[in-house]
Specification:
This protein is an alpha+beta fold. It has 7 helices and 7 strands; from the N terminus they run ααααβαββββαββα. 38% of the residues are buried.
Length: 199
């Protein structure tokens, strides 16, 4: 079993341990042939993306899932709908939304090149709209960051209020340590960073 699939197993255990309420909002995976067809329709040929959706087919419809910052994993159908609705106004066609809570999203960079596979932060309130900024170095680093955030209590699910509390300072320390190639975590002003996605 490759390292990414092992990380998915660790994420699964982590969510069941620290955030079982939101974990139950995730759907079981679609059949492999259907996953492959939907990914092909999106132009994605990536084994880690495929493995992610072989784990879970994102959140249930209208569930407002909170498993990490920016919400929950989108289902393959939601990705198609989200991409269609935002494509013309907000981001390049090779950005694929993976995680979303509406006005903030994590986008997979599906453009071949030196930044292929990085995950970018799209945010209306933070004004990363036309130029999303690199946030996670890879899908693998996103999983590692999420796992460490739960284990170190940067993410704590408040069962009483049905809310994922985020210790922003602690999360930033964790994310910065793991995602050393992403512009958002650079010490200088990220608005000056040249690692924006080139549209």
């Amino acid at each position: 079993m490759n390292s990414f699939k092992l990380l998915l197993q660790e994420l699964d255990t982590t969510l069941r341990t620290y955030n079982i309420v939101e974990y139950h909002k995730l759907q079981p995976p679609l059949p492999d042939k259907e996953i492959e067809k939907k990914l092909n329709d999106l132009g994605i040929i990536d084994e880690n993306v495929k493995a992610l959706f072989q784990w879970k087919n994102g959140e249930k419809e209208d569930s407002y899932c909170q498993i990490m910052e920016c919400g929950g994993l989108l289902s393959l159908q939601e990705i198609k709908e989200d991409k269609k609705s935002y494509l013309s106004d907000c981001y390049a066609p090779t950005f694929i939304p993976i995680v979303s809570e509406g006005e903030q999203k994590i986008l997979f960079n599906n453009k071949q090149g030196s930044h292929y596979g990085k995950l970018y932060f799209y945010s209306v309130p933070c004004l990363y709209i036309n130029h999303p900024i690199s946030y996670y170095d890879s899908l693998e680093s996103m999983l590692r960051t999420t796992i460490e955030a739960y284990k170190n209590k940067a993410y704590k699910y408040d069962v009483k209020n049905n809310w994922l509390d985020i210790d922003r300072d602690l999360f930033d320390l964790i994310a910065k340590k793991i995602n050393i190639k992403s512009a958002y975590w650079k010490k200088h002003n990220p608005l000056q960073e040249e690692e924006w996605y080139e549209i």
